[in-house]
Amino acid sequence: MRCPFCSHTETQVAETRESDEGDVIRRRRRCLHCDKRFTTYERPEIALPLVVKKDGTRADFDPNKLRASMTLALRKRPVSVEQIDAALARIEEKLLASGAREMPSTKLGEYVMRELKKIDKVAYVRFASVYRSFEDVDEFRQLIREI
Q1: Which of 12, 57, 82, 112 is the most buried (most CB within 10 A)?
Q2: Torsion angle of alpha carbons 90, 66, 120, 114, nearest 10°?
Q3: More confident of the two residues 57 and 126
Q4: pLDDT at position 75, please?
Q5: Helices within the chain (DSSP H only)
Q6: Helix 63-73 and helix 81-98: axis angle, to 10°?
Q7: CA 130 – CA 13 distance, rounded (Å)
Q8: pLDDT single digits (tens) 47-70
Q9: What is the pairing mode between strands 50-52 and 102-104?
Q10: What is the pLDDT of residues 26-55, one digit of tens each?
Q11: Which of 95, 126, 94, 100 has its CA nearest to residue 113?
Q12: Which residues are 38's β-sheet partners?
C-alpha cells in the first residue's frame, strides 16, 4: 500500500476491524517512512459479465432491468417478493460462477425463463412470448405444449 502523504511503498498495518455487516474491512496503517497514519477500506470486487445484445452492443449487467422484466411477467401473479429475490440471486450466482467476461443476452434470457418456469408457468409463457418474439400461433402452441 502506497502512503498518500509521501508515496512511500512500505506501510505497516496498525489495526484491523471488520464492519458490523462483515462486508468491509477497515485498516489503520502507518507509513514506515514519514510515520503518518491513514485508513484504508477493503471491499470485495464482484465482476459480473457484460451483456452482449443481439445487435452486438455491450452493456453492464443491470439487476434492476432484470427485476423489472421479471416483475412485469409476474404481474398479478401469486408470487412473493422473496421468490423473485431468490430467483434473481440464483441468476447472479450463475453469472458469477460462469467466470465469463461477456454473456450473450440470449443466454441471460434463458436463465430468466428457467427461473420463471420454476416459479410460475403463466409468467414463463408471458416472458417467453415477448423474449422469443413468436411469429405465429403455432410457435406459441408449441411452447404451451412443452409445459
Answers
A1: 112
A2: -50
A3: 57
A4: 92
A5: 63-73, 81-98, 105-119, 121-131, 137-146
A6: 140
A7: 55
A8: 889 999 989 999 999 999 999 999
A9: parallel
A10: 999 999 999 999 999 998 877 889 999 989
A11: 126
A12: 29
The pLDDT tens digits of the residues spanning 83-125 come to 999 999 999 999 988 888 999 998 999 999 999 999 998 898 8
Burial (CB count within 10 angstroms: exposed 0-12, middle 13-18, buried 19+), residue 46: exposed
Distance CA 76, CA 84 (A): 13
Report helix, strand or coil for 79.
coil
**CA quadruple 82, 86, 91, 93: dihedral, nearest 10:** 140
Cell of 64: 434492476
The string of DSSP codes covering 124-145 is HHHHHHHHTT-SSHHHHHHHHH
Sheet holding 58-59, edge to edge: 58-59, 50-52, 102-104
**How many angstroms separate the CA atoms of 89 and 106, rounded?**
19
